[in-house]
Amino acid sequence: MLLWQCMSRFFGQIILSLFFITSLSLAQTKPLSDLTASDYPKLVKILGKESYQAETIYKLAKPVLLYVDKEWLTENGYETRTQSVGEFERKFLDVLGFAAPVAGESPLDFTKETKIFYSDYYGGDGIGNNRGSGRAAATGQLQIKGIGQTKMVHESEKTDKEHSSGTAGLYEGIIEVLASQIAHHELPFGANRVVALIATGTLTEFGEPRVLIVREDPLRPAHFIINDIPEELSREINRMRTVFTNIDKALPLPAGASPRSAEERIAMGVQEFIRRQSKLAAYSYANHFLHSAFSPSNVEISGAALDFGAFMALDGYTRAGRPEDNELNGDTNAVESVLREFLESLRERLPVALQKLVPTIPEAVQFFRNIYVADLQYEMALLTGAPEELVKNMRKSAQFRDFANTLIQIARDGNDEIFNAFDGDLKRTGTYNLEAILNKMSTELEAAQPLRSNKILAEWFNQVLTSEIPNITVRKKLIEGYVDFVSQMGEEALKQGIAIPNMKKYMALASRIRNRSTPALMRRYSPGPRAAWKDKFAAFKETMDPQPIRQALENTIRNNRRTFHDAKPFTLVLQEKNNGNYVERETYNLRTDKIEKTILEKKINLNKPRTVAPLCSHVFM
């Protein structure tokens, strides 16, 4: 009877919650037509009209919706649930199924209905001879990549075919969806999400289905860097005057900051910009992500990752990247180059009275390097499975730093061979498999007897790690550091009322999650993901049925997700299931040693972000 009452209450709460959510969304959500209802991109408030050129685009005759991020639409207050799937897709394509014709396409591929979107000017390294977005244009909150050749393409000195043709192919679209969604959930400041992928019904010049990559309109450091094409200089100087009027509104601020003036916002914002680049670089290296075309135009000023054509996951700590530019996985040359370009522009373009708020380049680089060392130590230590709530109180100790540096050295040991990220296979290199070592240590730690001394524990680790670490000196140093680290963390756990067995169980679970690979983004391997999608591409070209690709994208995103940054303190998300109108999470509670299942309401961002709120929790021993 008690079980029946619990079940009735549980499902009753779900029904009531869904009714509440549906009623709220019906009352306050916006129609899809509002996605493009703005006269200009929303970023015009910061960048000014001087940053844009109008682009005329035409409604596609036979577009197909391959993917849509309904969570993004819901978060931003757009209606998604009061219509059938077919009706939703029709309305969505009526709003965003527009592009500019390119060579080889027929007038029959388009209707006469037009819209105006806006391409944007920017500068900085990495854009070739273009003036800005050569194949992207925006309105409202969204930008469409692959929309056609824009006025930002320098006709007499075109850059590479990919960026000058104006188009994007299906494989590029697949990678952009997967990488942006996985990175958004995992990276410390998220990613610029692909909101939709639309097939135009035509082919690129390379014979691949042409697609439109609909994404959040990005605000880049490159928007605040002059484009030094000689004949464009007068216009660019005028653009710079406008964007620097609003630079204080563009810079990120630390959580909880309340600057009292534009000067304070600039001072805080510059430091926070540097901190975020450090955190992003450290997290990416520790967790095997590489953006091998990192530049002022390929990252958002907020620290969100952007443009995923060269973004990938690695198997281990392979030294891959751009050897010709000395920008490789494991160093920070690419990030420091972005810092230099951006801060040099600030120091040159800000009014003289404000330039003192920006550190000199040597000061900024040294500041970055100092915090990067600490950030990398922290991220590497978390790979042990350690709870963040405990580790953050240990960061300043000498023992913590020594142990983290040992992990970094093991990760780097043997990774001497250099690979071009754009050529061939990126095989795993390195003397040791750090992920496997840490998983084994956390498993053995959980199984160890509660009263086992540090000395006995170290001796046991020495036996079980012989095959993984044949070098006795390296093995001894790691074991000593690990045992000290766990001992120190155990003291911190007891201070916070956490039982040691709970801590060890958490570490075993978290280590396996955090050290999982991300195979969907290991796309430079032969035969690689392109081969995995080959049959789906061929079927789509023949049938134009989007369902197999859509389902594969959703499954791949779900299966490659590791981290949930919005989890409650002292909990670890083990898995999450999205059931359409609500989300179900299974979490381990470090304090109670229980597995909890929690129903979460969908997030609805009407005016400001809302936190995910639990509606009901069930606990399992």
The secondary-structure class comes to alpha+beta
> Spans with pLDDT under 50 lasting ≥5 residues?
23-27, 603-621
Task: Kindly state the number of beta strands.
Answer: 18
Helix content: 40-55%
Tell me what portion of residues adopts beta-strand conformation.
15-25%
The radius of gyration computed from the alpha-carbon positions, rounded to a whole number of angstroms, is 26 Å
Distance between the termini: 20 Å
What gross morphology would you assign? globular
Mean pLDDT value: 89
Q: Sketch the major β-sheet.
A: 6 strands, antiparallel
Describe this structure in words.
Helix 6 packs parallel to helix 20, helix 9 packs across helix 12 and helix 14 packs across helix 17. Strands 2, 5, 6, 7, 8 and 9 form a six-stranded antiparallel sheet that branches. 43% of the residues lie in helices and 16% in strands. The chain is an alpha+beta fold and 621 residues long. The C terminus is likely disordered.
Q: Can you describe this structure in just a few lines?
A:
By secondary structure, the chain is an alpha+beta fold.
Throw out a few tags for this protein.
621 residues, alpha+beta, 6-stranded antiparallel sheet, 4-stranded antiparallel sheet, 20 helices, 18 strands, globular, disordered C terminus
